[in-house]
Design a protein that fits this description.
- The protein is about 95% helix and about 0% strand.
- By secondary structure, the protein is mainly α.
């Protein structure tokens, strides 16, 4: 009886080792596949960046004044947005000051009515 338990335990241990080997093999395959896909994506990103650089260089070389105008327009737009964002916070304080000024007069008017 003890021998049958031992043989059964050895059988289960062998099955478990086989499953572990299968899982290990699958994990290695998945890691290799992810590595290959990552390398492909990196190569594609490098090619895209290089193509964009070449196209931009060619554009600036062929039409320098237009490139300067586009850069100036972009800088103007960014500056205008920045100014609008900073004046928005100043408008809040302006509204608070106007409210502080008008509030006492509003209360006095309500008392009269």
């Amino acid at each position: 009886m003890a021998q049958s338990y031992e043989s059964r335990a050895e059988s289960l241990a062998s099955d478990a080792q086989d499953k572990v080997q299968q899982l290990k093999s699958k994990a290695e395959d998945a890691a290799n596949r992810v590595s290959r896909e990552g390398a492909r994506a990196l190569k594609s990103a490098e090619e895209t960046a290089e193509n964009a650089y070449v196209a931009t260089s060619r554009f600036v070389r062929d039409q320098p004044l237009l490139a300067i105008g586009i850069a100036a327009g972009f800088a103007f737009a960014v500056g205008a947005l920045w100014k609008a964002a900073s004046s928005y916070s100043r408008n809040d304080s302006l509204i608070d000051r106007v409210s502080d000024y008008l509030e006492p007069q509003y209360r006095a008017l309500r008392r009269k009515l």
